[in-house]
Amino acid sequence: MTALERQLTRTLRELSAQYERERTQHAEQIATLRRQVEHFAGQVTRLTADYRTLAETLRGRWS
Fold it and tell me: pTM for the full model?
């Protein structure tokens, strides 16, 4: 193997390792974002229910 081939092989391995690290990091970020979206969706559902309850209560008082 020539010096150039060794250098290219080493560089390819480094790039492959970097790609794998970044892929893993992005997958973790996506998982975190999905959990946040689920959390916020739950909050929206609860707030919607609370709003409806409040609206019904207020309509009942002034009807």
Answer: 0.69
Q: How far is CA 13 from CA 8, 18, 21, 31, in A?
A: 9, 9, 12, 27
Residue whose entry in the numeric block shows the structure tokens 């919607």 = 48
41/33 Cα distance (integer angstroms) = 12
DSSP state of 63: -
Q: What is the mean pLDDT of each run of 10 residues along the chain (63 residues)?
A: 96 99 99 99 98 93 75
Q: Which amino acid is at 13?
A: R
d(CA 44, CA 63): 28
User: CA–CA separation, 18 vs 26, rounded Å?
Assistant: 12
Whats the size of the chain, residue-wise? 63
